[in-house]
Write a structure and sequence with these properties.
By secondary structure, the chain is α+β, with helices and mostly antiparallel strands. The chain has two domains: 45 residues; 105 residues, no CATH class. It contains five helices and six strands; from the N terminus they run E-E-E-E-E-H-H-E-H-H-H. The strands form two sheets. It has a three-stranded antiparallel β-sheet, with no helix packed on it. Strands 5-4-6 form a three-stranded mixed β-sheet. Helix 1 packs antiparallel against helix 2, helix 1 packs across helix 4 and helix 3 packs antiparallel against helix 4.
Amino acid sequence: MKCPFCNHPESKVIDSRESKNGLSIRRRRECLSCKKRFTTYERIEEIPYMVIKKDGKRQPFESQKLLKGLLKACEKRPVPLQKLEEIVEEIESKLQGGPEKEMKASKIGQFVMKRLKALDKVAYVRFASVHREFKDVLEFKEELESILKER
């Protein structure tokens, strides 16, 4: 494995851990040249799972893209990264466990919103405003009122 700092071609594995659901292995490595440490993830290469977008187009499911969206929704919020990674892993498990190799983006969004609502209401509203494409402040207000009624 090439070092991302000095491009030396060799490194040694310091620690290996399996993810909770067993879909990947996290490895801490140390460069044999510059001695800096970095993390790599090893996954089984499989048939790509497809996401059906709102316009009907299909594209491969990208866990990092989903995680980026979650991180954006949770920016400056007290939500641990580990919880967001768990959400992404759960969605990957749903895709892998189902008979179909594709899922509608709306279904993924609904699942994410359900999980975010339990974690952090502000992050939920941020994610929902993008996912549901609120057209004006009234739709935003209605969503906030529904959250307040649940209290």
